[in-house]
Structures are given as structure tokens and as C-alpha cells.
Amino acid sequence: MSNRVTYRRKLSYNTKSNKIRLVKTPGGKLVALHTKKNASKVKCGDCGNALAGIPSLRPREFAQISKPQKSISRAYGGSRCATCVRSRIIRAFLIEEQKIVKKVLKSQVAESKGKK
Q1: Any bridge partners for residue 20, and if so which?
Q2: 78-88: b (≥16 Cβ within 10 Å) or e
Q3: What is the pTM of this model?
Q4: Among 9, 33, 51, 67, which residue carries the largest CB count within 10 Å?
Q5: Which residues contact 51 (CB under 8 A, 6 or more apart)?
Q6: What are phi and psi of 22, to 5 degrees?
Q7: What is the pLDDT of residues 5-41, one digit of tens each?
């Protein structure tokens, strides 16, 4: 039969913030160590994939690290993944090209009406 252990903090319920790990001390006693929550990876705002190059830390720890560690030196670095940034740039370029084509077609139609 295993030994019973008690929580070391006041909260007496098995909640997400009150998880423990059982550890045997050198003296042979079984004690409860409170564990920290696992940090989730920073996700891309568009596709939801984890961002590479950014550490996964709890919010308070993440706020305490320096700015270069929180982002990547690229447009939308630390917010969007490289694939989504690439697709955004291509989309913007194609929209601009489409506007130019519409403008040219409109001017050609106007010229053809003017000649008639």
C-alpha cells in the first residue's frame, strides 16, 4: 500500500493549478512537489501552427524576456509564420496587378468608344 501525501499549499482540490509530483526524499519520506503548468507554443494568428524560433514560456516569464527573443527579424515576425507572410505578400501583389489590369482595360474601352 502506498503512503498518503498531503498538499503543501492551502488549496485542497485537484485543480489544474494545484498539480503535484510525488518525490522520495533522501530520508525516505514521500513528499508532494507542486509542479508548474506546461507552457504552450506561440501560434500563428492566421493558420494556428506553432511559430519556430520563439520560446514556449508561461505568460509572466514570456513578459520578462527581452524583445529580440520574443520575435523574429522579419515582417510579422513573432505573430505570423513564414508561409502566411509569403501568401500575404503574394496576395497583395496580385491584387495590385489586378487593379492595374482593370485600369488598362477601362482606358482601352474608353479609347475605342472615343474613336467611334
Answers
A1: 34
A2: bbbbeebbeee
A3: 0.72
A4: 51
A5: 41, 42, 43, 44, 72, 78, 81
A6: -85, 130
A7: 999 999 999 999 999 999 999 999 999 999 999 999 9
